Amino acid sequence: METVTSKDGSRIAYDRIGEGPKVILVAGALGSRDFKQMSQLAELLAERCTVINYDRRGRGDSTEVKPFSIEREVEDLAAVIEAEGGSASLWGWSSGGALALRASAAGIGVERLSVYEVPFIVTESERPTRDYGERLDALVAADDRSGAVKHFMRNAIGIPAPFVAAMRLTPMWKRMKATAHTLPYDWAALGAEHMYGAPLQAGEWAGVKAQTLVVCGEKSPELLRAGSQALAEALPNAELRELAGVSHNVKMNVLAPVLAEFFAD
Predict the structure, then answer these.
(1) What are 66-110's pLDDT values in tens digits?
(2) Three-state DSSP class for 33?
């Protein structure tokens, strides 16, 4: 494990494996670098890339200095990039892709960028609920981590109540509770203005100069595929790729060859 100190004093932890062009993996909501899919993707990409798998602030082995702002998360990535030579590419999964987009726009040395199904909602939808952000803040303020995870699963993703109840009996629930206090960070990265059907405006993303690969899954909900298409159209230098046979919970052995070709070309 490596560590670097961010601008505000937070310690950011990461692992580095492989050789080749540097790629930093940015996890989505509740994720950390030791999640199975993150470590699996790191190992697969390491055959052609130097892969940096890091814990976002407040997760895993990374600390955080309060108060939070999305700018602090961008500074964390800037610190990792600087520690690793001053330039790197980024891959962001789901809401982690929104953070990767904002980091790229900040001009911190991002060479190439790929995102997988950033959940920008550009069509009418019942999820997330209109009071999602307000209720989430209240649950986190009360340190009700289990309630925050349940709220995210039910009212952001829309997982049926019986399935959420069953999930609470699994070891994964404990792991998600450990990072539940960071759920507002992903909401901030996405931006509430992008979650209720408004079209994406190209001007907002004009600062994302890096060549970008937007990826979505053939079996994902139409809502996510529509958001991916809208994002690819709004970015100044982007290509959209749809992967056959996968959903939002993407199979890393299907995704990895596509990313390796893009980052190591």
Answers:
(1) 999 999 999 999 999 999 999 999 999 999 999 999 999 999 999
(2) coil
Question: How many degrees, rounded to 5, is the angle at CA 186 between CA 154 and CA 55?
Answer: 115
Q: What's the CA gap between 22 and 112, in Å, rounded?
A: 10
CB 119 within 8 A of CB 227: yes
| Cβ 180 vs Cβ 146: under 8 Å | yes
Token couple for 161: 């109540």
Average pLDDT over residues 214-241: 97
Distance CA 143, CA 80 (A): 29
pLDDT tens digits, 136-148: 999 999 999 999 9
- Is residue 134 classed exposed, middle or buried when 0-12, 13-18 and 19+ CB atoms within 10 A define those classes? exposed
Cis peptide before 128 (omega within 30 of 0): yes
Residue spans of the domains in the chain: they are 2-124+197-264, 132-188
2-124+197-264, which class in CATH? alpha beta
| Single-letter residue type at 111 | E
CA distance 248 to 48: 24
111-125 pLDDT per residue, tens: 999 999 999 999 999
